[in-house]
Write a structure and sequence with these properties.
Beta-Lactamase
């Protein structure tokens, strides 16, 4: 599902399927490239247009998401451990995903190698793919400056 996600909402819905197995009590994520708030916000807005009731927030130039097993983040126990997955692809940081689990829980059935390798890689690929879809191509930015300069030159030259 992650490989087919076309927006942030679909990416996090796919993640919820993993979490719905009851292995974790809480999860939160921050996705987006540092210093690329414009691109991150366009991806967030595009997802919001397609899915108006999604539970995403745009804060400090990045997209934040959280999920709770019982739907109530406020009643989380302090007796939890967490598993942090840094989202890095080709040396570029795309954020992080934290998974929380109570100390008193039954034994963890999901393989942590699966989480730290395949799942992390697929999640990172999905985030990078979805976010870069909303990157303005450099030629568009430079073309608009060239067009503006050409227009000014044309107006400044006398006819004839």
């Amino acid at each position: 599902m992650l490989s087919k996600a076309s927006d942030l909402h679909e990416m996090f819905e796919a993640t919820k399927h993993l979490l719905d197995f009851g292995e974790f009590s809480f999860a939160n994520a921050q996705v987006g490239q540092r210093g690329r708030a414009d691109m991150n916000e366009r991806a967030y807005e595009a997802s919001l247009q397609r899915h108006p009731k999604q539970l995403l927030e745009f804060r400090n130039g990045r997209v934040f998401w959280s999920w709770s097993e019982n739907g109530d983040e406020m009643n989380r126990s302090r007796a939890e451990w967490s598993f942090r997955l840094p989202l890095v692809k080709d040396g570029v940081e795309w954020g992080w995903l934290n998974l929380y689990r109570g100390f008193e829980s039954e034994p963890l059935l999901v393989d942590t190698n699966y989480l730290s390798d395949l799942f992390r890689r697929e999640f990172t690929d999905a985030a990078a793919r979805i976010l870069t879809l909303h990157e303005l191509p450099r030629f568009v930015q430079s073309s608009s400056f060239s067009l503006l300069a050409e227009t000014r030159e044309t107006k400044a030259q006398p006819e004839g």
